[in-house]
Amino acid sequence: MVAFNTILKTNGEGVTLDESELDKFAEQIRGDVLYENDEGYEEACAIWNGMIDVSPTAVVRCTGTADVVTAVSFAREHDLLLSVRGGGHNVAGHALCDRGLMIDLSQMTGVHVDQHAQTARVQPGCDLGDLDRETQLFGLATPTGIVSKTGLAGLTLGGGFGWLTRKHGFTADNLLSADVVTADGQVLRASQDENPDLFWGIRGGGGNFGIVTSFEYQLHAVGPQVLGGLLLYPMEKAGELLRFYRDFAADAPEELGSLFAMRLAPPAPFLPEEIHGKPICGLIVLYAGDLEEGERVLEPLRDFGQPLADKIGPKPYLAVQSMLDQGQPDGRRYYWKSHYLTELPDEAVDRLVAHGPTLPMPLTRVLMMQLGGAVRRWDEMDMAASHRDSEFVLAINNGWDDPAEDDEQIQWVRDFWSAMQPFSTGRYVNFIPAGEGRKGVGAAYGEEKYRRLVEIKNKYDPDNLFRINQNVQPTV
């Protein structure tokens, strides 16, 4: 049994739960309830961003929706600080709460594919790779992200974009329905026909309105072979390459997902040894269509300059989806910031590439992905997922090992982000680091959307039980 039994209230005061209360709660949970000295506790609390240094008093490892309802009801009745873990991959570390109750969904990883209806029903503990492996059995996929270890729940609730976005929209655009456990312990179906206001909010509004225990996605014919890979260049070519890519992308077909990248060269055998550890730039692509047509579309890119490496070719869709995984190892210290850009003038290009020679760490990544295409088939006010007029989304991602370097590495990201601020039209909610509050959340949605999100929050979570997130604060 737990050697201590204090859990912080949501108002910041301590509440002591005696052993009998905790025992009674644990007996109602089919999964495990873990405390600090229990086997499995450290594993449950080990999230992707190792910079997050808080620990819940108790972890509820749920096996199904009934466990989630029981845990939510217990937290509400005792006014406990509550966090929710899906994939544990969020840069802000919102899976963890300080001395509160963590609802851990990581054991709920079921995926059911209906190949005839081209839909998938997915539990919230899945990562992108879990979904992709099941859907690719039938040559199907839905737009997700670009790192297969990313948690699918958090990605979807924040909007979600990746290689298939220009062809099929945001991840949230492809959500057909969801089962949501709300703050009062109800299980509601959210769709266009059932609780449509809740459905509007969860498609981009994060975990503010409840815990989703089942996602239903629209799938599309993709793969199993696609044309994809990367082109790498010396950093000296970054300005010329980015201008060329900007102009090329303006007329690119929706089948092409692509991004511009800057990083330090890895010690890869396909790169000259003298370039290892030095700043490089490049393009990463996935063409989700006829392979021969893809070769024709990509020919101008591949003819540009003299790349250090051209690794574009036919590949399994699963391989392209996971090819960036090694750049985000678990447990390192991460700090990210982002901008949406509706245009990329020469001045923005100059400012962006000026930071290329200053890349500080092997895990530093600057990624700028093209949007547009299918994203604009939805109106801006169709759901909470935002910034559909953007041409690009810029992610400034830094990762390192030594806590002594935190201030320096965080400041590098902030300085770069500030330099690009004049060209920004908003921020991607999933890339907001911890501690930015109302200002950061407001920039993710804009005032009109934020007001509507507050209205939905007032209805479904007026006491702000679900507050360890990019929080929309209720006004009731």
Q: What does it look like?
A:
With 476 residues, this protein is an alpha+beta fold. 27% of the residues lie in helices and 24% in strands. It is built from 14 helices and 21 strands. Strands 14, 15, 16, 17, 18, 19, 20 and 21 form an 8-stranded antiparallel sheet that branches. A 5-stranded antiparallel sheet has the order 7-8-12-10-11. A hairpin with a 4-residue loop joins strand 7 (111-114) and strand 8 (119-122). Helix 8 crosses helix 11 and helix 13 crosses helix 14 (447-460). The model has no long low-confidence stretch (mean pLDDT 95).
Number of DSSP helical runs: 14
**Helicity range:** 25-40%
The structural class is alpha+beta
Q: State the assembly state of the protein chains.
A: single chain
Low-pLDDT stretches: none
Summarize the structure.
By secondary structure, the protein is an alpha+beta fold. Helices cover 27% and strands 24% of the residues. Strands 14, 15, 16, 17, 18, 19, 20 and 21 form an eight-stranded antiparallel beta sheet that branches. A five-stranded antiparallel beta sheet has the order 7-8-12-10-11. A four-stranded mixed beta sheet has the order 3-4-6-5.
